[in-house]
């Protein structure tokens, strides 16, 4: 409490108060002091500065007022009957967790240990008595700046939280759509295994994400031929998957009139185009009609089920692999140029003769370029060993074994790139 000359000097400084500090964040001030006179003096000063003032004669009464209405600034005496200023500050902080208020302790103590105790209780600042009006104004202005920054931060955090919630909602919706898109893309493989009298053909498509840029397929041509294609669109994700869907329409088994690999004959039947001509038509289609920056690699083959002869055109796709009946393997093809990069490109084709018990394997580069835990790729040598290990397996089980062996090599269940393939197993005439 202030007495005598100290009280007179304090009252004179109150009368000398002038321009109020800014009040963007501080509007309501709570005065807590057991001295009614000091509360009256400070309340007059703060009201003159433009603040709304609440008063409490004890910490307990102050907490009751705070529960009803939270202040922006608290000016609390240190020494009070009952709960002290630091104790009140701790209780106030627990009460005001959602909305931060600036807390200044008023004390005659100047000992550093006592000051540290006050700050540890949760106070933001302290002022020694008797109060100086200019110093009080400066401390309130400092509190104003801190509260402005704190509330701006709170507002921005709230905006970030709302944005993250909205992004999560969008992601969940997007993820749901991608799951459906994956189902649709997988449905492009109408038959993953088909058995003919002279051969079996098995297809595999495994995307690295929800959807991918790989696609494999087959379709019969008359009674004695089978068309097969394996393609890999550049990039990953939705745009690549959309392009595979469009390309699937141009190599469709259910719409022969739209299948670029087929030519309608005068009698209404369909004959096969040469594989190199099919790739040339697709190259022109991509460059002239599809407005896209994507390109793709492709192997297109036509197998004669009666003779075992396979005519193949290769456009940048990994080399097909032939496995003889004794388990030996060798690659065929010369590589070629990808589809959709340059006009006027000439594509070549070659022939492979399969004997009964031999197979043709066409894989995407997601197999040979699959890395292990130290970054080493499987490559062609690793593929040959892998094929040797599973040589006695056939049909759909062959690709299951291949994926298992690839997982063992890479140490991963999910691969960094799409993995797709065609297995053509020739058994000869029935």
Automatic annotation (TrEMBL):
The record's keywords, sorted A to Z, are:
Hydrolase, Phosphoprotein
Occurrences of domain Response regulatory (ranges): 28-144
Pfam families for this protein: Response_reg, SpoIIE
Q: Which InterPro entries match?
A: Bact_Sigma-Reg, CheY-like_superfamily, PPM-type-like_dom_sf, PPM-type_phosphatase-like_dom, Sig_transdc_resp-reg_receiver
What SMART domains does its record include? PP2C_SIG, REC
GO function term, MF aspect, one: phosphatase activity
**Which GO biological process categories is it annotated with?**
phosphorelay signal transduction system
Modification 4-aspartylphosphate occurs at: 77
Superkingdom, natural source:
Bacteria
The record ties this protein, via SUPFAM superfamilies, to:
CheY-like (SSF52172), PP2C-like (SSF81606)
The protein, known as: Serine phosphatase RsbU, regulator of sigma subunit
């Amino acid at each position: 409490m202030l007495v005598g000359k100290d009280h007179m000097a304090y009252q004179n400084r109150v009368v000398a108060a002038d321009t109020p500090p800014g009040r963007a964040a501080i509007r309501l001030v709570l005065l807590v002091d057991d001295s009614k006179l000091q509360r009256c003096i400070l309340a007059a000063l703060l009201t003159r500065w433009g603040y709304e003032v609440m008063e409490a004669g004890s910490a307990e009464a102050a907490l009751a007022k705070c529960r009803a209405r939270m202040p922006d600034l608290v000016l609390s005496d240190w020494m009070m009957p009952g709960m002290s200023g630091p104790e009140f500050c701790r209780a106030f902080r627990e009460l005001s967790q959602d909305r931060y208020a600036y807390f200044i302790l008023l004390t005659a103590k100047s000992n550093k240990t006592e000051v540290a105790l006050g700050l540890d209780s949760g106070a933001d600042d302290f002022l020694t008595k008797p109060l100086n009006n200019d110093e009080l104004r400066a401390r309130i202005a400092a509190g104003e700046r801190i509260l402005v920054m704190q509330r701006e931060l709170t507002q921005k955090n709230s905006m970030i939280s709302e944005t993250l919630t909205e992004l999560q909602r969008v992601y969940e919706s997007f993820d749901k759509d991608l799951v459906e898109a994956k189902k649709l893309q997988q449905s492009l493989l109408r038959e993953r295994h088909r058995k003919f009298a002279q051969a079996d053909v098995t297809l595999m498509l495994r995307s690295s994400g929800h959807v991918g840029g790989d696609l494999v397929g087959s379709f019969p041509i008359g009674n004695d031929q089978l068309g097969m294609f394996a393609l890999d669109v550049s990039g990953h994700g939705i745009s690549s998957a959309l392009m595979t869907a469009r390309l699937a329409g141009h190599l469709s088994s259910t719409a022969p009139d739209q299948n670029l690999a087929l030519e309608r004959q005068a009698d209404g039947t369909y004959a096969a185009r040469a594989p190199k001509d099919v790739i040339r038509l697709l190259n022109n289609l991509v460059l002239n009609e599809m407005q896209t920056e994507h390109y793709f690699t492709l192997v297109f083959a036509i197998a004669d089920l009666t003779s075992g002869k396979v005519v193949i055109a290769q456009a940048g796709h990994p080399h097909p692999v032939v496995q003889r009946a004794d388990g030996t393997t060798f690659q065929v093809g010369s590589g070629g140029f990808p589809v959709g990069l340059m006009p006027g490109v000439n594509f070549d084709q070659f022939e492979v003769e399969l004997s009964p018990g031999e197979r043709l394997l066409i894989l995407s580069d997601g197999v040979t370029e699959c890395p292990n835990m130290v970054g080493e790729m499987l490559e062609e040598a690793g593929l040959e060993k892998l094929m040797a290990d599973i040589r006695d397996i056939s049909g759909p089980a062959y690709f299951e074994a291949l994926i298992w062996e690839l997982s063992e090599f890479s140490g991963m269940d999910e691969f960094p790139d799409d993995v797709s393939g065609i297995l053509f197993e020739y058994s000869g005439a029935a």
